[in-house]
Specification:
Helices cover about 45% and strands about 5% of the residues. It is built from 13 helices and 5 strands. The radius of gyration is 38 Å and the shape is extended.
Length: about 350
């Protein structure tokens, strides 16, 4: 447009001194990425070069300048214990004051008399008091001012209705893919048997979890029989129950059947934790026969068995990866990558 002014014409009118002053004003921000690094500072050295760099000579010159430069006279003479100038007093807004009050309320505070006594107590007094309480002096001070235990809200109760779950599994409901019966009390052994029996003809469920529900061996045997006819279940979790070691071994042997598709089994924290070498050998043999299992949540006592089981499940993961590559699926396909951040 006709009202626009060409920036080049304006710069051509300025003198070199005015251009230098303009550059000095623009160099106020040393972090401005749009300016060359040489002009990000207002300092301009107009001296003629004196030759090649001589480090020792440069250091001696700097020291000589520093020694010959007189110190600036202080407006207020220094006096020990006397503050010079204005004392900084922080100013807080209402939100900051509320956060500070909340933080102070969460800290442990003793009675005023006890606070004064500890503040004025000598090392010998603290050691004598710790000796009376039969504790270490350092531990005594740390315990006196220990932070209170942080309270975490308990998890909301599980409101799943086992009867509704049973009906959905019987009808092979397509929306019933994840069943969670964790921490539900009052489920009878017969109800569990009925639920496990419905898995025989269900091809939609993929994840089943029944932790801390007082599950018995008889119900687990029913589950073992149902796994031989179910290929859709991928994840099974029955942790923190009272299942015996032999029943767990039967469960892993049933999972090794070629008719099911379990990829993950979690059975840790049962009533009897120590299973013995005989049962652990049965479980290890069943896992090694299983070409699909990749995760097993179980506590094994013998290191040699743990090494064998871990190596086999790693091999199962590698087989799945190799099969995926043979099918033409590139590594990372389907993953949403986050672009790397740059300095710009």
């Amino acid at each position: 447009m006709g009202d626009e002014v060409d920036l080049e014409d304006l710069l051509s009118v300025l003198s070199p001194e005015e251009v230098a002053a303009l550059v000095d004003e623009m160099a106020a921000d040393p972090d401005d990425k749009h300016m060359p690094a040489s002009v990000r500072t207002a300092y301009r050295c107009e001296k003629e070069p004196t030759g090649d760099l001589n480090r020792d000579s440069l250091i001696n010159c700097i020291n000589e300048i520093a020694l010959n430069t007189p110190d600036q006279e202080e407006k207020v003479k220094y006096e020990a214990g006397v503050k010079r100038g204005k004392t900084f007093t922080p100013v807080y807004n209402e939100s900051q004051m509320a956060e500070m009050d909340k933080a102070d309320a969460g800290q442990v505070k003793l009675d005023p008399d006890e606070e004064d006594a500890l503040a004025n107590a000598s090392v010998d007094d603290i050691m004598a008091l710790a000796d009376i309480l039969n504790t270490n002096p350092q531990d005594f001070v740390m315990e006196a001012y220990a932070d209170p235990l942080q309270y975490f809200e308990p998890d909301p109760p599980n409101e799943t209705n086992p009867k509704e779950v049973l009906e959905k599994l019987k009808s092979n409901d397509r929306d019933c893919k994840d069943v969670n019966l964790n921490n539900l009390g009052g489920i009878s052994e017969q109800d569990f048997c009925d639920i496990f029996n419905t898995l025989r003809n269900n091809d939609n469920i993929t994840k089943f979890s029944a932790c801390n529900v007082d599950l018995s061996d008889f119900a687990v045997q029913t589950l073992c029989a149902a796994l031989d006819q179910n290929s859709s279940l991928k994840s099974l979790s029955i942790e923190n129950n009272r299942v015996s070691p032999d029943a767990l071994a039967d469960l892993f042997e049933a999972a090794a059947s070629p008719n099911n598709g379990l990829l993950e089994v979690r059975v840790a924290s049962q009533q009897q934790e120590k299973m013995g070498q005989r049962v652990e050998e049965r479980i290890a043999a069943a896992i090694i026969k299983n070409p699909r299992l990749m995760k097993a949540g179980i506590t094994l006592e013998f290191k040699e068995i743990v090494a064998r089981v871990s190596k086999h499940m790693i091999n199962n993961m590698d087989k799945l990866r190799i099969t995926r590559l043979k099918d033409g699926v590139a590594p990372g396909a389907g993953v949403k990558w986050t672009a790397a951040r740059t300095l710009d």
